[in-house]
Amino acid sequence: MEAIFKQLRKARIAAGLTQAALAGQVGCTQSAVSMMEAGRPEALSRESLEKLAKVLNVTLPEAVDAKPLSPSSGAGPAVCPGFNCPSNLPYAVGGEVFFMPLGTAGSGRHCVLCGELLARRCPSCGAPLSTPGGCCAACGAAIVTMPEGYADNPQSWIEDRTAAIATLRRALDA
Ligand SMILES: [Zn+2]
Ligand SMILES: [Zn+2]
Fold it and tell me: How do the residues of the chain divide into helix, strand and coil, expressed in percent and rounded to 5?
């Protein structure tokens, strides 16, 4: 089955709605609709996602409705959910920052690099993670996401991160 965000995007285009027009009907921002369509349904609240699906006459799949299973249960490869963890490589697509798990977080309960509880299931739909990658194969959601404050402005994260590395370099040189 096609990922839900792809279905919603198609349904919006078929309905002749722009992202902004749809956002207006749902009561969310155009950028949240845009992020959702790029495979990040967590950009929308559950309530907005339901409203949006209703406007477009699309049925949300069980997996999205179901309460996600505990992210650390299951047998998929382990991914560290820490966005600042060195086990995740940041990369940018169209001004948005994504993270590619490098597979260096270890295979225990906690990340060997930063100590975070490792995820083995998609944080959005609860599907077991298949191959290590930046996005869930089942729903397309990003596995590692930026916290709210940075998500709207990845540039500020890049600046903070650059400053942190410069501070570390100075400390090492001293
Ligand atoms: Zn980590
Ligand atoms: Zn998923």
Answer: 40, 10, 50
